[in-house]
């Protein structure tokens, strides 16, 4: 077999292993090792080459941003800032039709700006927002759907772990990616809120009887709004203001944000030693999982480079003459389809290294392409049969009457709105690059 054929066979074997239920990093590592072994003819050389790839990846200074933002997100979660964000957002939107649903979107947007983890948002607001909406007469399907839909904001609004991962894979500035995610993230939140308001105005029965009621009884006093909102605003301003103001790098911002979240938790007396120990354990587990994913992705990239598959794929695309937009649109469709069966990180780890050698000669703006990739990947968080956000919500629910099907159906309108925002970012790249 030629190296190109070996590379294709390794790729196919990796996909089969993932479908068979293998852990994604294991499938990537095994297919990479066997592929390099077959290309070079030496298992020892294959092991050394892949060990070198792992060492170079994990020793990167920029990788330090991952555990720091994960730690900050978990500290924010256990200190009750998610509930405070929900209370403030609900107060601000209580007079609007569907105000409780719009408030949930707003709370998720706020929470996303200090965590960057969509799964954390889904778990937190399933316990906070869903019971509250059901209590006020909203349909169960809508209640879980709005939480599922708005939870994906955590992967786009900076700081975002997916943007960090993309930056590591493509060697792009994480700070630039964060800035590029601001306008699309706000646009997506506005699309969700507008969609809820229009549905409540013209088809209120879809949201339930609660959409017609006034939420005035949940209003906070001005002092309570300040008390609940000020810590959140302070932390967002500290992290994002420091990055955009040039006071510190994204890695340093993660450390400053961790310290700020811990200080706020202690000042609010909402962070105990037991909670902090659990946060450290959870952070270690998530960071270790991400480490394995990134190491496996680098091994996979090395194997692909040795096989010549990316170069051959690029030559095929060039000869096919489908053009710039043909390549971009085919990639977006492939990402959305893969989202139905794989998690977001795995999609990026598999496709980005494959596409990068094709995109660079075409002059594609990799910052804009990163935003396009993240939005397309996010759609997969809401689509069956995988839909990781949907499964997180189901596991966090204390209501057996709400099925997985209900959550998927409730999330479907939000997935369609995400596709609409994706189309806008594709048509108008300045939405992503205008602030850079």
TrEMBL record:
| GO cellular-component term (any) | plasma membrane
Which keywords has UniProt assigned to this entry? Cell inner membrane, Cell membrane, Membrane, Transmembrane, Transmembrane helix, Transport
Top-rank taxon: Bacteria
User: Which GO MF terms does the UniProt record name?
Assistant: transmembrane transporter activity
Domain TRAP C4-dicarboxylate transport system permease DctM subunit intervals: 11-430
Sequence similarity: Belongs to the TRAP transporter large permease family.
Entry protein name: TRAP transporter large permease protein
Q: Where in the cell is it found?
A: Cell inner membrane
- What's the stated role of this polypeptide? Part of the tripartite ATP-independent periplasmic (TRAP) transport system.
Q: Which InterPro entries match?
A: DctM, TRAP_DctM
**A Pfam family hit:** DctM
Q: Where are the transmembrane segments?
A: 6-39, 60-82, 102-130, 142-166, 178-204, 225-247, 283-302, 322-342, 354-377, 407-432
Q: Does the keyword Thylakoid apply?
A: no
Q: How does it sit in the membrane?
A: Multi-pass membrane protein
> Its quaternary structure?
The complex comprises the extracytoplasmic solute receptor protein and the two transmembrane proteins.
């Amino acid at each position: 077999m030629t190296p190109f054929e070996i590379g294709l066979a390794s790729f196919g074997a990796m996909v089969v292993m993932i479908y068979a239920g293998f852990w994604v990093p294991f499938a990537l590592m095994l297919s990479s090792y066997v592929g390099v072994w077959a290309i070079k003819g030496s298992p020892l050389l294959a092991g050394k080459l892949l060990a070198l790839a792992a060492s170079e990846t994990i020793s990167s200074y920029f990788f330090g941003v991952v555990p720091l933002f994960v730690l900050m997100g978990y500290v924010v979660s256990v200190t009750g800032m998610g509930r405070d964000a929900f209370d403030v957002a609900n107060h601000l939107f209580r007079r609007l039709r569907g105000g409780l649903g719009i408030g949930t979107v707003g709370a998720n947007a706020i929470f996303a700006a200090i965590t960057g983890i969509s799964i954390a948002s889904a778990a937190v607001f399933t316990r906070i927002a869903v019971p509250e909406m059901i209590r006020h007469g909203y349909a169960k399907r809508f209640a879980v759907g709005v939480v599922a839909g708005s939870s994906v904001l955590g992967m786009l609004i900076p700081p975002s772990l997916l943007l960090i991962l993309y930056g590591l894979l493509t060697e792009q500035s994480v700070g630039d990616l964060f800035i590029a995610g601001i306008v699309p993230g706000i646009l997506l939140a506005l699309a969700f809120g507008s969609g809820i308001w229009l549905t409540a105005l013209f088809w209120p029965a879809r949201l339930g009887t609660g959409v017609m009621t006034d939420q005035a009884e949940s209003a906070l006093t001005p002092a309570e709004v300040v008390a609940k909102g000020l810590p959140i605003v302070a932390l967002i301003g500290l992290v994002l203001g420091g990055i955009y103001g040039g006071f510190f790098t994204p890695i340093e911002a993660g450390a400053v944000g961790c310290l700020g979240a811990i200080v706020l938790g202690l000042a609010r007396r909402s962070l105990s030693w037991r909670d902090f120990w659990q946060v450290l354990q959870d952070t270690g587990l998530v960071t270790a999982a991400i480490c394995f994913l990134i190491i496996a992705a680098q091994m996979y990239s090395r194997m692909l480079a040795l096989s010549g598959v990316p170069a051959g794929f690029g030559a095929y695309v060039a000869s096919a003459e489908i053009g710039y937009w043909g390549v971009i649109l085919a990639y977006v469709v492939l990402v959305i389809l893969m989202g139905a069966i794989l998690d977001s990180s795995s999609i990026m780890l598999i496709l980005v290294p494959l596409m990068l050698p094709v995109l660079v000669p075409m002059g594609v703006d990799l910052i804009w392409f990163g935003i396009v990739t993240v939005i397309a990947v996010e759609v997969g968080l809401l689509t069956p049969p995988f839909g990781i956000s949907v499964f997180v919500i189901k596991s966090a629910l204390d209501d057996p009457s709400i099925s997985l099907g209900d959550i998927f159906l409730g999330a479907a309108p939000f997935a369609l709105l995400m596709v609409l925002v994706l189309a806008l970012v594709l048509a108008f790249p300045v939405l992503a690059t205008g602030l850079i």
